[in-house]
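DM from R.C. (forwarded with permission)

"hey, sorry to bug you on a friday — could you get me a structure for this? deadline for the figure draft is monday and I only need the backbone to look sensible"
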Amino acid sequence: MPTPPLSDELLTEAVTARREHGSVTAAALALGIPRTTLHSRLSEAAARGLDGSVPEPLPEGRTISGVSTLYDADGKVRAQWVKTKTEPDTLDIIREAVEALKEELPRISPTKGPEHVSGDLLNQYTITDSHFGMLAWQEETGTSYDLSIAEQLLLDWFSAAIAMSPPAHTAVLAQLGDLMHHDALESVTPTHKHVLDADSRLQKVIRVVIRVIRQVIAMLLEKHQHVHIVMASGNHDPASSAWLREMLAAMYEGEPRVSVDNSPSLYYAYEWGKTALFFHHGHRRGIRDVDAVFAGIFRAMFGRCTKAYAHVGHLHSNEVKSTNLMEVERHETLAAPDAHAAGGGWLSGRSAKVITYSKRGGEVSRITLSAEAVQGWREAAE
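My reply, with the result:
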């Protein structure tokens, strides 16, 4: 329920205390309330005209939007006009917007899956650091990359990967973070505000990302009986990954063949028989120490499984480390390097993998498709 508005009496008391005691600190002490609370009440009092700034207090539900004053030649006030506006309840507006979004958002109806699949197998389609919205100039970075290239490359990769992978019962769409290059209207990193090379407007990037992910899920549903979606939060897109998870969970809530991990945690897991699969972007913990975090967070699941595999991205390069707890793997990206990476000499390969797991035996096979191989696949298909 919305917080009820403060009474005129309470706000007038705040104004009087401030006037009598000479400072906000002294007035708050006298009233027995925190300074921040008194500040809030004084601001509300001013907005309603209860602090003496207007001749008469304003009706409930209206606030001051501006004041116009007419002065004479001697600088004395001759007239004053107070402009007011109706102040809607912010929480009510948010709730109405959320409900409207729920009503308008299309739900995906149940579909029938393929008949002949192996109940023992799971295909994990592992992609990371796609950086939709990033711009790379070939003369500067060695390879061009923009929003349209990113879209076509990812869809071509999934077309090839799905065709080559075995007929497994379940697919895990393991998107390990930084799907989007920037997370706000400004093309900067969310935490450190580093300026990024951006290709397009944020809303256009969002539109393309939603379109691509929906296409990928539809493709996976044609191949597999069940699709589990992991949209990990990255350091470039913590907010975008959050709304994408929630949007997908709402869209596919009527499709029993799709499950979405919409946990707000930075660490994700999926249990496949006796095989445990773990996912994290890699910006908080890397391959040297993320195993203990997974084992601690998912203690019960880890105890039930005899095989365990963890997957991270972030550094755009391949590396595998076997620990006493699990095998931890860092993955390359399909995306081209940006100017920062190219200038720093971080020239990793470009690839993504489909890793097939058995319920009892852990990993049984894998397919690694480079960006160049995907291009060859597309040209052969044409």
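R.C.: lifesaver. The chain has a mean pLDDT of 84.
me: no worries. The two ends are 58 Å apart (CA to CA).
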